[in-house]
Amino acid sequence: MQTAVSRNPLVRVLAAIGALVLAGIALVLGAMVFLTFLGLAVIAALLVWVRLWWIRRQLRRQARQGRGPGPRRKGRTQGRVIEGEYRRDE
Length: 90
Description:
1 helix; mainly alpha; single chain
C-alpha cells in the first residue's frame, strides 16, 4: 500500500509544524507523568522514613523506662531465672 506524499511545500510545512506540536505535547505529557510518579515516590519514601523514626522513638522511650527489648539499666528484673546444664551428644 502506497501513501500519497504531497509535493506541495505548504502542505509539507504544515505537516512539519503539526509534527513539532504533537512532539511537544507528548514531551510535556511525558514530563507530567514522570513528575507525578517521582512525587509519589518521594511521598512514599517520606512516609517510610517517618514510620521508622516513630518506631525508633518508641523503642528508645521503652528502653529508657526499662520495658523494651535489650539490656535493662534499672534495678533487678522481675522475671524468673531457670538454671541448668546441657550436654551435646556427638
